[in-house]
């Protein structure tokens, strides 16, 4: 295994510094000169480390103002997922299929927990979104933005900011390569019925039914993305 470079080691130490000092997004970091002295490295090394961390939203460099803890958003993660999936898909490999399977496993594994006690206001939001889908279906297509809003609202009661970001990262990744999904093959009436069944199962507090409904929801896209070799073994 290759040894980390001085800049990579400085990246690690910068992240440790943020943790040790309990810094939050937007908090100021030591100046470049202070970091140079603190870590015993040159300015070029510090700048290289800061630029690398800025690329993944760990730090934010504000020209003329200093360096601050970044947003820590998962947008680089989503971009990496999308790019990996798109490259593998265009090479004839199951990149999009794998991405979809991970998202399916995540959602099917979580929807049962939602049935334990979803607030009435969240159910109202979900039912309203299904109603919006049904209106859109009348025009021949359910908007991806409405579908995306449904899936994010579904897990709101779990009150996990990280979960919301991870789910949204998967949506963002799929959206970036949506031209390969051929969503025109998805019957909007079926899409609406599947979402309504998910809501009904959650409202009934039936975890097993909710999981089945979520799996069924993924059946259509799984069929379209499934590698031919896998289909032949069924």
UniProtKB/TrEMBL annotation:
<protein>
    <submittedName>
        <fullName>FadR family transcriptional regulator</fullName>
    </submittedName>
</protein>
<dbReference type="Pfam" id="PF07729">
    <property type="entry name" value="FCD"/>
</dbReference>
<feature type="domain" description="HTH gntR-type">
    <location>
        <begin position="4"/>
        <end position="72"/>
    </location>
</feature>
<dbReference type="InterPro" id="IPR036388">
    <property type="entry name" value="WH-like_DNA-bd_sf"/>
</dbReference>
<dbReference type="InterPro" id="IPR036390">
    <property type="entry name" value="WH_DNA-bd_sf"/>
</dbReference>
<keyword id="KW-0238">DNA-binding</keyword>
<dbReference type="Pfam" id="PF00392">
    <property type="entry name" value="GntR"/>
</dbReference>
<dbReference type="InterPro" id="IPR008920">
    <property type="entry name" value="TF_FadR/GntR_C"/>
</dbReference>
<dbReference type="InterPro" id="IPR011711">
    <property type="entry name" value="GntR_C"/>
</dbReference>
<keyword id="KW-0804">Transcription</keyword>
<dbReference type="InterPro" id="IPR000524">
    <property type="entry name" value="Tscrpt_reg_HTH_GntR"/>
</dbReference>
<keyword id="KW-0805">Transcription regulation</keyword>
């Amino acid at each position: 295994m290759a040894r980390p470079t001085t800049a990579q080691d400085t990246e690690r130490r910068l992240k440790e510094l943020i943790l040790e000092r309990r810094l939050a997004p937007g908090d100021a970091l030591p100046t470049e000169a202070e970091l140079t002295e603190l870590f015993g490295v040159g300015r070029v090394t510090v700048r290289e480390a800061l630029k690398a961390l800025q690329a993944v939203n760990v730090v934010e460099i504000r020209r003329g103002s200093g360096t601050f803890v970044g947003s820590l958003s998962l947008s680089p993660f989503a971009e990496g997922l999308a790019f990996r999936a798109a490259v593998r898909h265009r090479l004839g490999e199951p990149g999009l299929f794998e991405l979809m399977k991970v998202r399916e496993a995540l959602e099917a594994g979580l929807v049962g927990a939602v049935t334990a006690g979803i607030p009435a206001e969240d159910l109202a939001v979900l039912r309203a979104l299904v109603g919006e889908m049904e209106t859109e279906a009348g025009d021949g297509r359910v908007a991806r933005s409405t579908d995306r809003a449904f899936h994010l609202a579904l897990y709101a009661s779990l009150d996990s900011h990280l979960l919301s970001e991870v789910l949204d990262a998967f949506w963002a990744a799929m959206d970036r390569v949506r031209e390969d999904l051929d969503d025109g093959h998805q019957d909007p009436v079926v899409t609406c019925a599947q979402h309504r069944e998910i809501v009904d199962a959650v409202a009934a507090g039936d975890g097993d039914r909710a999981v089945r409904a979520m799996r069924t929801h993924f059946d259509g896209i799984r069929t379209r993305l499934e590698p031919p070799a896998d289909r032949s073994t069924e």
